[in-house]
Amino acid sequence: MKWSHGRMPQPRARGLALDLGSARLRLWTPSGRTVDLPSAGLVSRGRIVDTCAARRAVLAGVSERLERLTVVATTPVVSDDEHRDDLLAVLRGLGAVVLIDGVKAAALGAGVDVYEPLLVVDVGAELTEVGLIAEGVVVQARRTDIGLGDARTVVDVVGEAMLELLQGPCGSQVVDALDRGVLLTGGGALRPEITYKLGRRLGAVVRPAPAPHTAAVRGAAAALQATHRHPTSSPSSP
Predict the structure, then answer these.
(1) How many CB atoms within 10 Å of residue 178?
(2) Which residues pair with 120 in a beta bridge?
């Protein structure tokens, strides 16, 4: 598995990339600047709990003059309509909004080929996501309201999620992805003991993404560039 070295895309596109997590709000701005702000009180367990405050935080993070832009925003896997509606409300008036699964964004940010079967484990502050990506699409996923604050149980939860994926309709692709190696992202990838224990539990190589805490916003920025190179692509799948 090959990937990039954690560099942000160069500012070729007029737009924003947003990763709104349970602990941090990260923005890639039209000038190529990355903004990193606390999001405590805005998001809980991957759900927006204060839409107005989240909107103010996003607007405060953008110092450039705002025109109608393209905004690429990450969402947790298996997000419901309520979360998507809340996120669209946060971004209302900024321009066309493109939503991308956070695990896919993290893989793009790590520079990994998303057209071969790939397993991504994202361990965040309050949420853990496991996604199987194939042909550029998240084909199966699991999420749980357990994060770094519950680090003792993260490995067990990921192991159970992986077993469910193996027993699902895409089991053969999961096997191929395990042979390829698992991509670990989010704050959990900064914890060597999580990488080690996951590798032991899964019987597979687990590789932390470069600069894993910003992989998702880097990937969202890369997806933003793609929407400008291919403006006719579907808004829901950059």
Answers:
(1) 18
(2) 131, 183
pLDDT digits (tens, 9 = 90+) for 137-171: 999 999 999 999 887 899 999 999 999 999 999 99
The three state secondary structure string of 130-160 is: EEEEECCEEEEEEEECCCHHHHHHHHHHHHH
Name residues whose C-beta falls within 8 Å of residue 54's C-beta, 6 or more positions apart in sequence: 20, 25, 39, 42, 43, 48, 90
CA 14 to chain CA centroid, Å, is: 21
Other C-beta atoms lying within 10 Å of the C-beta of residue 78: 14
The residue type found at 140 is: Q
CA distance 21 to 38: 9
What number is the average pLDDT over the span 172-198?
Answer: 97
Per-residue pLDDT of 13-62, as tens digits, reads 678 999 999 999 999 987 878 899 999 999 999 999 999 999 999 998 88
Domains, the chain: 15-101+216-229 (3.30.420.40), 105-212 (3.30.420.40)
CA angle 198, 200, 205 (to 5 degrees): 75
**Residue that the structure tokens 């991504």 belong to:** 120
What's the pLDDT at 49? 97
SS3 92: coil
Indicate if the alpha-carbon torsion angle 160, 106, 190, 2 is positive or negative: positive
Would the pLDDT of 71 be above 70?
Answer: yes
Judge whether 87 and 99 are in contact, CB under 8 Å: yes
Helix (DSSP H) and strand (DSSP E) numbers for the chain: 7, 12
